[in-house]
Amino acid sequence: MSKPLPSPRFANRRRWHSERRTRGESGLQAVPEPSLPPAADRYRGLFENSPISLWEEDFSECKTYLDELTRSGIDDLRGYLRENPDEVQRCASLVVVVDVNAATLELLECDSKERLLGRLPIIFRKASYDIFLEELLALAEGKTVFEKDVVNHTFRGKKIEVRVRLTLAPGHEQSWSKVFVSLTDITELKRTQAELSKLAQLDTLTGLPNRYTFDDRLEREAIRAARRDQSVAVLMLDIDHFKDVNDLFGHPVGDAFLVKVAERLSHGLRSLDTVARLGGDEFAVLQTEAGQPESTASLAQRLISILEQPFEVEGYTITSSASVGVAIGKAGEIDPRQLIRQADMALYRAKQRGRGTFRFYGEEMDQEIRERLTLSRDLRLAIDNDELFVEFQPQIELVSGRVAGVEALLRWRHPEYGLVSPGRFIPIAENNGFIVPLGDWVLRAACEGFQRLRKAAGGGELKLAVNLSAVQVRVPQFAGTVLGILESTGVPPQALELEMTESLLMQPTAQLKANLEQLHSNGIRFAIDDFGTGYSSMNYLRHSWVHRLKIDRSFLQQVEEDPSDAAIVTAVIALGNKLGLKVLAEGVEREGQLEFLHRHGCDEAQGYYLGRPTSVAELSRRLAGR
Ligand code: C2E
Ligand code: CA
Ligand code: CA
Question: For the whole model, what pTM was predicted?
Answer without folding.
Answer: 0.60
